[in-house]
Amino acid sequence: MNLQHDPNPFDEDEVNPFSNRTAAPASKSRIPALVSETLGFGQRHDATVDIPLDTTNDSKKKEQELANWEADLKRREKEIKRREDSVAKAGVPVDDRNWPPFFPIIHHDIANEIPVHAQRLQYLAFASWLGIVLCLVFNVIAVIVCWIRGGGVKIFFLATIYALLGVPLSYVLWYRPLYRAMRTDSALKFGWFFLFYLLHIGFCIFAAIAPPIVFHGKSLTGILAAIDVFSDHVLVGIFYLVGFAFFCLEALLSLWVLQKIYTYFRGQK
Q1: DSSP sequence for 44-65
Q2: Which pTM was predicted?
Q3: Which of 18, 53, 135, 219 could link 158 by a cystine bridge, Cβ 3.0 to 4.6 Å?
Q4: What would the DSSP string read from start to end of 205-225?
Q5: Distance from C-alpha of 114 to C-alpha of 68, rounded to nearest angstrom
């Protein structure tokens, strides 16, 4: 028996199926295979890494939206500044009267002049101003009914004075300062608004009670006046109770608006 000695009995041709059989013996080295196994390149159980390609696109889209929003805000600020400068130089108002549409007496354009993030608050404040207008107008109607039923002409004149003074003064003293404060972010105008809006809330609470002091008792449709006239004339009492409900709702709405605007003001600072 002729046994031939093999210096490397574990070196077989089939160890690397991708090796070339005609290659030189040196090509049978297992170093490349070991390296590939160590590094894990091309192996069956290699971990895969998912690269979210949409993340970059989403971030760029958000950055573009933020840039557009900032550009629009700067454009509005420049427009407001230009209008205010023209007022200061020319000495004449540039705000055209556009509200109410059927008989314009004031300038009011929340959608185009108030920043988007503050428009909801401005609409709430506008609803509060419309609320006090409704309260004072209905107060005149209820007092007219009471006057017809023998309440006297004095309370009619007083109720008319409340309406004629209350509607424009509420607009000039607290609604218009708030409108301008929202446009220019002026702390002074915000302070002016808070001062007179507190007085407005105090008047609503006083009118809802209608004590017979300062104002003539039956010239305001409060709860005390309603109780007083209800025993004599039920219809008048119903009108006064409705007026009392209006003043109560206006007081509650005004308190809510005050809290919202104060929170907004503190957040801006």
Answers
A1: TTPPP----HHHHHHHHHHHHH
A2: 0.66
A3: 219
A4: HHHHH--SSSS-GGGS--HHH
A5: 17
Which positions ≥6 away from 151 have C-beta within 8 Å?
143, 218, 229, 236
Residue 148, pLDDT score: 92
CA triple 60-115-177, angle to 5 deg: 160
Say yes or no to pLDDT of 30 above 70.
no
Q: Looking up tokens 């107060």, which residue turns up?
A: 139
Amino acid identity of 152? G
| 163-182 per-residue burial string, b: 16 or more CB within 10 A, e: under 16 | beebeeebbebbbbbbbbbb
Quote the tokens at residue 106.
């004031």
- Under DSSP, is residue 164 helix (H, G, I), strand (E, B) or coil? helix
Q: Six-digit token pair at 58?
A: 């989403």
At residue 40, what is the residue type? G
